[in-house]
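Quick check before the chapter quiz. The format below is the same one you will see on the exam, so make sure you can read both the input and the output lines.
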Amino acid sequence: MLKRRIIPCLDIQDGRTVKGVRFVNIRDAGDPVELAKIYADQGADELVFLDITATIENRQTLIGLVERIAAEINVPFTVGGGINSVQDVAHLLKAGADKITVNSAAVRRPGLITEMAGEFGNQCIVVAIDTDLIQDNWMVVVDGGRTPVKLKTIDWAIQVASLGAGEILLTSMQNDGKKGGFSIDITAGVSRVVNIPVIASGGAGKMEHFREVFFDTSCSAALAASIFHFGEIGIRELKEYLNNEQIAVRI
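Here is the expected output.
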């Protein structure tokens, strides 16, 4: 049985780790290099680093910070924010990222996924899908959750898998930062229709939420931010709990 992964996410703004609710009402959560080292030492399976304002500020991801973080950790590391071209991916992989994640640019030009996968292999390409419940339909939103598009989340997930994505990072804007649990219905729905790994994101508030998403969906990993940043749950403690709940994790 494949082991489920636990992935801390470092949202970066102005060189600092931050966290908000639905990507707004931001508060400082610490130095990203120090947090990355702590999470790697605690047994995180991977890390995700998202430069959360790169797209709306129309600039590239902070390469220097990626280099500093990558030099300090020994776990796989995914980087996203402001990625618009094959050249952007090349720079980030050279800086030390293991994978990249692309979101808004892929929605606006889906062929970008195929270009990136063709150049670097689909194992390097994670497509982030931000989804929100709009008039009882799970729809795709872009620009850090600010802009809804006329694209159903399930349809887009199927398309990105067919275009060459190696993994999907699915964030529920409905639940993001609220600590009430993952959005089980859309996570289960996306996991059912694609044959690539799905990372559940948005809403983790307690250890039971991880058990629920792993029991009730076939997602491969669960991602969280503030509960790790502010010391509410320890990664080692979480993994021991999941192991006791008969969920296969890497201890």
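If your answer matched, good. The domain at 5-244 is CATH 3.20.20.70 (TIM Barrel).
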